[in-house]
Every structure is written in C-alpha cells, then in structure tokens.
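Quick illustration for those who missed Monday's session on complexes.
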Amino acid sequence: MTTRHLFLIGPMGAGKSTIGKQLASVLGRPFLDIDLEIVKSTGADIQWIFDMEGEDGFRQRESNMLMRTISSSTPSVIATGGGIVLSSDNRNAMTTAGKVVYLWVTKQQLYERTERDKKRPLLQVEDRKSTIDLLYEQRDPLYREIADIVFRSSSFHAQQVAAELADQLSVI
Ligand code: S3P
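Prediction with shikimate-3-phosphate bound:
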C-alpha cells in the first residue's frame, strides 16, 4: 500500500465523496474533499462561486485547494471534483504527490445518480444526459491518462466498494 496521498478521480456521480469517506475510515487516514474544503474556506457554495466568478474562477480555487491539500504531510484520501483533470498542472501534481484511482461507472449510472441533482452547476441544464455524455467523452481519456487503478465496483454499497478498493490498493 502506498504511503502517499490517494486521489479519487472520476465524473460527477461516480461516488468519489461517499466511497472516499469509507475508504479513509478503512485505511485509518484523514479524508479530504476538495469541493467541501473550497466551500469551508470561502463560506460560499459551489453554485454561488460559479455564478459570481464563472467556471474559470472556480477552477482557480480548485487548483489552489488541490495544492493546499497536497501539502499536508499526513497521507490522506482526497476526493476531487470531476473537472480537476482539465488542468495539466493538476494532473501532474496528483501523479507526483501520490496514487490515483479512477472510479469508473457506466453512463447509465451517472444519469441515474444525478437525476435529482440541484447542486452541480454544470448539470442544471435542459439536456442533462447530453452534457454527461459530452463531459464523459472529453474527460475519460484524462482520467485514464493519470490513473494507477481504474476501479469498477461490482457493488452498490459504499462500505463493500471501499473494502474491495482497499484490497486492490494493497498491491500498489
Ligand atoms: C464539477 C464537479 C463537481 C464540482 C463542480 C464541477 C465538474 O464535483 O467540482 O460542480 O466539472 O465535473 P463532483 O465531481 O464531486 O460532483
């Protein structure tokens, strides 16, 4: 098992936060969620940041927070936002600072899991499925580019998924 940070990457609705929390508890490591850390440090929610500063403003905050979490000397489980891989600096920072797990789920699962979403600015559109498809085509190659493990869970239970993942991580 790596003694460095573990990054969870993947699209909105892949379960990065839920599984990350469970995984951190299985491994006895701190859990950090980049989006949540942004919200905590700004006192504003993600939608508000998108509204006031646009996606570019959010991406800047996201990169800054990634660098901040990486600088923690305690090896942690770090859940990232779906768009973190868009920046090559972010991709390099993650591969340099630890191991990267791509949580892969089917598009159908993404459609279902984001069906009632009201919080993700990029999904508050008329044709949510097309947006998910488009983001998937753009980002799947980037997730794969930096992933040490592409993890496809066979279970729907976060605890079970985290246990399976911890098992796979024991060899890296
Ligand atoms: C985004 C994903 C979100 C959040 C923001 C943008 C994206 O995080 O960072 O709404 O570009 O895919 P989750 O993947 O945790 O939903």
